[in-house]
Every structure is written in structure tokens, then in C-alpha cells.
């Protein structure tokens, strides 16, 4: 008795060739709708599904394969006598292979002209049911969802090697496929209803490519792209020059882009290991570059530079004088590209809408036995600023304090930034004691501390105030909220230091 294959595919690439090979190997074909038509027109002998079910498809094709003569033929256990007797008594013939891919919900979702009705009608029902049935019964049935597997399946059939282990592989692939499909639909409905924290969280990503390695050479890694991204959250991202991006490149790039997106003014940041080593704003991008570079002209070597304006000839010539992994900007001038592409390995990344696209509403981090999901830290101050000392900051000091507190959002906690003229001149970050972070920042600023101010991502104690006095810092900004706030304020008053409370903390772990 010949084996039967049910073929019902939306994407019909190579399906005629595959079906023809199956026929040559003695397989009988059942098919539906458009697939039936294309196979029949190609000259193949094909049985239409309603010939098997004795029931015409209804509801404009919404129901056609949901029938016991289909699912019974797929799901019965060939080695269980009661199952065999049941299908024999009912006149159900076996279906030994299912070839299926689904309505293009993903493609429609990413179409800018889509409507809700379009999306609803592209939610496949019968397809996932057949796929799951065949995948469940992989012991007896082969499920094929990927055209890339067609040629190997034919070769295995010819060599009698379409064995249980390979069917298990196909089953695994099928369940990944339907899970991905359903997760995409649930993501759309969550977004439709503005549900950021659903009771059951599903995430949908598609593999783009394998990376050379992960954080370290002994770690494997791949890059997966988020499939469903709302139009206003899509980064217009393309690589203009340079070798392929690595795991660390991708994470550093995201950090750098998030930093420059904090600022409307022309902004430049240099990033190393996901942390800024120089950050500045100005009324022109060339000056912002010079100030960011001056913060730490050593650490910037081998780092990433991001700008929220066009890369000018001036900046390109500066960057070309030392080694940089990546330059990211919304645009590169013609002269800048000519200069920077002289270096073979430097990556040039253009994000045309770098200032316009929105960052995600939530962020995700792996923890023991799971993940934690939180709102993105997208505010600077949740309350009005409060000057809590007798001395008030000058207008220029206040401007630098606000810039500094925004810069603090971008550094690892405990985080301190020393700021002057809308640029970081010293950064202390990732320390377990805040006073150590202050010491780091002050040491890096060194002899440039006159008229500088300090920003802290969380409250501090008297030991930090003593360091401020010793180094001539006259204005600080911090969240406040410590049981020692009163002591800190009193000491600042004694030393003539202006202190501003934000009532908003910005830890970054």
C-alpha cells in the first residue's frame, strides 16, 4: 500500500519539484486549495482534501482540514492495535507525511498598509492543527515545515533513512515554528490592548546569523532579530562599511545609541564595554566630539563612537588618527565616508532615524530560574528639582547638573560623573562603594576641576561631601532619600556647596 502525504502550503517555493519526487517514490498526494491547483496544473495526480473527507470546505476556507478523516489519519498509532482497528472500521486511511507552512501573518503584520481585519484573516487554524498533530505523532509521521528540508527528505527516502531520529528533529522544528507563529499573534494582541506585562509572556525573535563568538572566544552566540516591532520603534539600521559585527559590538552599539538618544542637542558619546568613557553636548557636533574625546582620550581607543548628527569631515579626520571599532550616526558626509573607509576593519553604521525611533516600553534581564521585566527608564525627574542647601547653584551650574544627572543614567552603578561645560570630564562607575566612584571620577578629571560639578545616580553620605570640599566642587545633584540627608545637607552648608535633590534614582545594573 502506498504512503500518503498531505501537502498544503502558503509559500510554494520548490513544492512542485518536491511533490514530483515523492510521486516517483510511490507516494500518494492529498492537497488543498491553491496547492492542489498548482500541483494538478503541473501534471501530478493529486487527491483533493474533500475527496477524503466527503465534506466541502466552508466559511471561505476557514474550515477544510479540520476533520477526523484527516486528523485520524495523522494521529493514530501504527503499533497500537485498538488505534489500527478504529481507523480500519471507520475507513480512515493513513497520512504518513504532512507538508505545511502557514498563512503569512508575519508578512502582513509588517506591511505598513495592514488592517486589523487583514491580520485576523491571516491567522491560520487548520495548518497549526495539522502540524501539531503530525509533530506529536513523529513516531509514525513526518512533519515538514521548512522548504530547505525538501532535498534531504528525498535523499533519506531514497536511502531508507527517514528514521525516527530525523522525524524527531522535524517535529522539534515544527513545534518551534508553531510556537513562533502563536507568539507573534499574542504579541500583536497584547500591543492592541496596551498590555505590557501579560500573565503569560511570549517573545518572538528570528535568527539572523551566527556570530564569530560571544562575549569571549569560548562562548557560542547568534544574533536574533525582533520580528514584531511597531513602526515608531524600528531603527533604520544599515552597515555601510567594515567586517561583520560581533556580540560585544552589538551590545555596545545599543548602549551607545541609547545614550545619544537621551539628548536633543548635538551629542557625541564614546562607549567601551557598555559604559561611556566620554560624553558631551554642544551647539555643534564638532565641538561635542572634541569635548567627549577630551574626557578620556585613552579609553576611547578600540571603543565605539556614536553621534546624533552627521559625521563631518572634521570628525572623520580626528577618528581616522586612532583605532575605533565602530562609528554610529544618523548620516555620514561624503568626505567622512571617503576618509573612514580607508580603514578596512572600521564598521560604519548608519541609523537614519537615530533620534526619532522609540525605545521599547520594557526591558528584560536574565535572573535565577527566569527573567525580570521592567519599564524602560525613560524619565529623568519624576518631581521638580529641590535646592536643599543655603547656597543655590548658578544658572550655568544648574545646566551642567542636569546634563550630569542625565549622564548618570548611562553609567553602571554606583555611578558618579564630573561635569564641566556640558561634558563629562571624569566618570566613576560600577563601584561597590560610592566614595570610590567619586574618587575615580575626581582622579580622572584631575587638574580640570575648576568650576566643575558632580552628579550621582543615588544618594551619598558625608564621606563624599568631604571629597567634594577637598577638590573644590561647589555644586552637586543627587536623588536624596537617605536617613543621613540632614547630615549631608548640614555639611554642604558648612562648606558652601550647593546641593540639588531630584527625588529620582537611576541605578543601572
Describe this structure in words.
- GO terms for molecular function: IMP cyclohydrolase activity; phosphoribosylaminoimidazolecarboxamide formyltransferase activity.
- Residues 1-145 form the MGS-like domain.
- Keywords: Hydrolase, Multifunctional enzyme, Purine biosynthesis, Transferase.
- It is built from 18 helices and 23 strands.
- It folds into three domains: 4-193, Rossmann fold (3-Layer(aba) Sandwich), CATH 3.40.50.1380; 206-351, AICAR transformylase, duplication domain (Cytidine Deaminase, domain 2, 3-Layer(aba) Sandwich), CATH 3.40.140.20; 386-501, Cytidine Deaminase, domain 2 (3-Layer(aba) Sandwich).
- The radius of gyration is 31 Å and the shape is elongated.
- By secondary structure, it is of the alpha/beta class.
- The model has no long low-confidence stretch (mean pLDDT 92).
- The longest helix has 29 residues, at 164-192.
- The protein is 37% helix and 20% strand.
Strand order of the largest sheet: 8-15-13-11-9-10
Q: What is the beta-strand fraction?
A: 15-25%
Net shape: elongated
CATH superfamily of the largest domain: Methylglyoxal synthase-like domain
Number of domains: 3
CATH topology title of the largest domain: Rossmann fold
Helix fraction by DSSP (H/I, runs of at least 4) = 25-40%
Biggest sheet details: 6 strands, mixed
Q: How many DSSP helices? A: 18
CATH architecture of the largest domain: 3-Layer(aba) Sandwich
How many strand segments?
23
Q: Would you state the CATH class of the largest domain?
A: Alpha Beta
Distance between the termini: 64 Å
Coarse structural class:
alpha/beta
What is Rg? 31 Å
The overall average pLDDT, rounded, is 92
Low-confidence stretches: none
Pfam families: AICARFT_IMPCHas (PF01808), MGS (PF02142)
EC number: 2.1.2.3, 3.5.4.10
Catalytic activity: (6R)-10-formyltetrahydrofolate + 5-amino-1-(5-phospho-beta-D-ribosyl)imidazole-4-carboxamide = 5-formamido-1-(5-phospho-D-ribosyl)imidazole-4-carboxamide + (6S)-5,6,7,8-tetrahydrofolate; IMP + H2O = 5-formamido-1-(5-phospho-D-ribosyl)imidazole-4-carboxamide
Organism: Parvimonas micra
